[in-house]
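Quick one: structure for this chain?
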Amino acid sequence: MVVITFDRVCGDGHNQDYNLPLAIQMSNSENITVTRIETLNQFEDLREIWSNLLAQSSHRDIFLTWEWLFAWWKNIDQFENQLWILLFHEGERLIGIAPLMLGKKKRLSIPFRWLGNIGNCDIGGMITLDSDKTMPALFNYLQEHKNQWDVFEFSELNSDSLFTQQFIQFANASQNFVYIHENQHFYIPLTDVSWDDYYNNLSKNMKHNLKRRMKRLAEMGDVKFNKYIGETLQWQHFEQVFAVNKNSHFPQTYQPERQQAFHREMFELMREKGWIQIETLTVNERPIAFQYGFVTKIAMKIGGAE
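Got it. Here's what it folds into:
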């Protein structure tokens, strides 16, 4: 999957008028009301309507769920940022949510007010049922509140989506500096292929290496592969993940106290959904490797593997 990160920076360091064409400014946005959510309690009250909107959206992802973003905001982002969630209503009907936050950053030792997505996610952007209506409303709202931010950044957008293409058009029409950075993300597709079929399709060298490593594992003791999801998943399995990660190349992923608090909160919020899956490889009952991801009706996303 290809995703794009956008930087919205004004050339002279100050916010300027967008100078959007009148047709773009007014098109489909006159009847859209934008409401800003700024407190943790307000965010918590959004769970039901947020989930209902995401279920109707074509842009559904675990990283846009209320559960993920609320847990991240409560345990990590809220301590250094200001909540800036935007709700888009057409009459009484909710048609869009932009999960944003406002914070302070520096580039080249120059401080600025940064407005962007909540959370450190593989997928960003906003939830919308009709981007033809929410996109003009978003840019008009940003224009009306231009004195509150210096840089606007939408991170990790799918470059092939209609939303992203529309965002590029509106950003370019703003006549301010627009920076587009493209990353390549790799996802492992899940298939119904059996292990035997998968193994038979491996190269000769891959089969040899796999046999050699399995033999080494067997010499170490009793080897088991365990999968935990739904009711079988318990907090102790997260603690096993943390223990393995402690001696890994990237201990910062799970060792900080706030990170562990985030995973605890997310576990509690997603427990009934059955979205989280942890797999461990143990030798003599001691975990030596894990894979941590999310399984929904949409796709499985790998959150970490060591």
